[in-house]
Amino acid sequence: MCRNIKTLFNFDPPATDEEIRDAALQFVRKLSGFNTPSKANREAFDTAVDEVAAVAHRLFESLETTAHPKDRAEEAAKARARNAERFGAKQPA
C-alpha cells in the first residue's frame, strides 16, 4: 500500500473531508499509475477519486470501536520519532 496514505479512523478531531479526499487521490494515483492523468483520462480519474472518498466516508460511518480516539499531535510526534530512528535525525541548517 502507498506509504503516503495515513490512518484516518478514530482520531480526535475526526478526519476532515479534505483529508479523506487526499487519501482517495493518493489511492487512485497508486492504482492508476498516474500522478496527473491525461485529458482523455481526467473524467474517469476524478470520478474514481470521488467514489473512493464516498466509500471511505461510508466505511468510517459504519465502523465501531471501543478504543479511545487517538490524539493527532501525539500520533504525529510518534511518527516523527520513528522517522528519526529509521532515517537519522536531520541536522539543523
What does this structure look like?
- The chain is mainly α.
- The protein has one domain.
- It has 3 helices and 2 strands, in the order βααβα.
- A two-stranded parallel sheet has the order 1-2.
- The longest helix has 24 residues, at 39-62.
Offer a few descriptive terms.
two-stranded parallel sheet; mainly alpha; 93 residues; flat
The total number of structural domains is 1
In which range does the helix fraction lie? 55-70%
Order of neighbouring strands in the sheet with most strands? 1-2
Rg, rounded, reads 16 Å
Low-confidence stretches: none
Structural class: mainly alpha
**How much strand?**
under 5%
Order of helices and strands: EHHEH
Distance between the termini: 33 Å
Beta strand count:
2
Oligomer: single chain
The total count of helices amounts to 3
Shape: flat
- Major sheet size, sense and barrel closure: 2 strands, parallel
Average pLDDT across residues?
A: 89
